[in-house]
Amino acid sequence: MNLLTTLAGSLMEGFLPAGWDLAKIDRLGALGPGDVPRREAWWHPQFEPILCTNYADFDTYMGHEIAREIQQSYQVGQPLILILPVGPMGMYRWTVYFLKEWKVPCKHVHGFNMDEWSDAAGNTLPPHNSGAFQYAMEHAFYGPLGEQTVPLEQRHFALKNELPKYAAQIQELRDRQGARLVTVFGIGRVCHIAFWEPHFAAEFKSEAEWKAQTHRLGAKLHPLTIEQNALTSFKSRTTLVPAYANTIGPALFLASDRIIGGADGSFNRGMQWQGLSLRMSLHHEPTPWIPSTYMPTLPGRLFYVQELAEPLVAECN
């Protein structure tokens, strides 16, 4: 007895994205630790998953990876476009540490936050609100860099009047200055990238049309996305989580020269939320119904904590 055998007539019927093959997803959930990093035919030759034994390693490795991108682009005099997430977050402390140790300035960096909480019209939380992604980035990354930080005019946030300009700004930087584009990302409970949700797939007639989307203001979030964030960022207080968000689309993150991903969704004590999402992202064929499945088709690395790769079997807590 499981969800598949009890779905009919339940409140879960019609709740998960319509394009999900639950039987196939369940088979992916049964993959063991050794199968998680196994390569698939559609992976980019330069994509690799990186196992991290614990959270300390995860934060350090991922932070180092971001810092190295900044350092290397500085050394060759190339502008660097970073599409940045709020979640995961622990790596930013180490990015700052390495850049300060190496004395690398960030005047060549252009930061574009990939998403932000909003209402249905795309209006966002004020930047002084502790739940706002702009607040998080200023306190975790831009502020701690001190004199080495990214110039104010090169910090972009997914606001109503700014997000629609992202695509043109990024394209101009690439065309006129030869900028390199790197997307840093996490994976959502329903396998979103940024807040580009799986149910958006139903709106498009083709994969090409889906891939052409640059952004969305006031994106309607899946209930599991809201509850994921209630648990991870709002200390279980669901009523604080907005039901909408502004987000970049696949036309931006799939244009990346390189990606740096992270999956650290574990609560310890045997509890976690991201093991299935990790397996779906790595081992389900690319489909707009599971946006994160496209990330392994790009060059780069996905760091993940070992606990997520452990067998996904029931354990009462």
Structure description:
The chain contains eleven helices and twelve strands. With 317 residues, it is of the alpha/beta class. The strands form three sheets. It has a seven-stranded parallel beta sheet, sandwiched between helices. It starts with a helix and ends in an 8-residue tail after the last helix.
- Strand order in space, largest sheet: 1-12-9-6-2-3-5
The level of helicity is 25-40%
SS content category: alpha/beta
Low-confidence regions: none
The CATH class name reads: Alpha Beta
Radius of gyration: 19 Å
Largest sheet: 7 strands, parallel
CATH level-two architecture:
3-Layer(aba) Sandwich
Mean pLDDT reading: 97
CATH topology description: Rossmann fold
How would the global form be characterised?
Answer: globular
The string of secondary-structure elements, in order, is HHEHEHEEHEHEHEHEHEEEHEH
User: So how many helices?
Assistant: 11
Distance between the termini: 20 Å
Question: What count of domains describes the coordinates?
Answer: 1
Strand portion = 15-25%
Total DSSP E strands: 12
